[in-house]
């Protein structure tokens, strides 16, 4: 019997994305937010997230880290140029 892959809806910089319900890495989240800049070595990315509406605790995801995604999670990805 083949298992159906479950997907969840997450929001990255207010854009809705359907992703597999599993762990997403820092780099995968950055790539969802900024596909063309995600591999630029001169850009420093920051990722923060909340578990969804009604959850006020903002958590930070460190570069190289990952997070178990849940329905309705909200990710904020920002960046600055390394000087």
Can you put this structure into words, describing what you see?
- This protein is mainly beta and 83 residues long.
- The chain has one domain (7-81): Phosphatidylinositol 3-kinase Catalytic Subunit, Chain A, domain 1 (Ubiquitin-like (UB roll), Roll), CATH 3.10.20.90.
- Helix content is 10%, strand content 45%.
- The chain has one helix spanning 26-33, and strands at residues 7-12, 15-20, 23-25, 43-50, 59-61, 66-68, 74-81.
- The strands form 2 sheets. A 5-stranded mixed sheet has the order 2-1-7-4-5. Strands 3-6 form a two-stranded antiparallel sheet.
- The chain starts with 6 loop residues before the first strand and ends with a strand.
- The mean pLDDT is 92.
Helices, strands, pairings?
Layout: E1 7-12, E2 15-20, E3 23-25, H1 26-33, E4 43-50, E5 59-61, E6 66-68, E7 74-81
Parallel strand pairs: 1-7
Antiparallel strand pairs: 1-2, 3-6, 4-5, 4-7
Shape: globular
CATH topology: Ubiquitin-like (UB roll)
Strands, count: 7
Series of secondary-structure elements, N-terminal to C-terminal? EEEHEEEE
